[in-house]
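If you are new to this repository, start here. Below is one unmodified record pulled from the training split, so you can see the exact layout before writing a loader.
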Amino acid sequence: MDRDEGASTSATLAGAAPVNPAALEAAIERCVRLFYVKAHADDLLAPVMRAGIVDFERHVATVCDFWSRALLGTERYQGKAYPAHVGMPIRPEHFDRWLELFEEAAVVELPPAQANFAIDKAHHMAKSFMAGLFPLETPRMKAHRARLVFEWPQDQTDPSRRS
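And here is the target side for that same chain:
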């Protein structure tokens, strides 16, 4: 499904039914927690979660602040999401699963307009993160990399064995 990546919160949510901010804050927290329950139980994502999240409750609070800013325009989240993910053991194949689990949680816990907006934003973030983390990771490059096997020329020795 194509997602509108350039929409702003106000433009996307302008036609939505009014939402009680406190109720939406509670829905955001339920959404974030449901996503992490699913991610921690997932064979593909659980190792990344264990490696990347040191203080789970602090992380949940930060992610809730991020979505509160995105969906309600609050100012609690002042950071940048991308730098926090650099250096984590993330691979391209993690993104589809992350999006799948996030979409499930958003649809269950958020009002429809806010769920659609959050899903759109998550897709945009995934594309941006992929471009930053794997700038040359095209299907062709990935296939080529998988075929690479390095062999030392017969007239040279492995430099790690040199004295």
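Two things worth knowing about this chain: The helical segments are 9-13, 21-41, 46-52, 56-72, 81-85, 92-109, 112-133, 139-147. The chain has one domain: 19-161.
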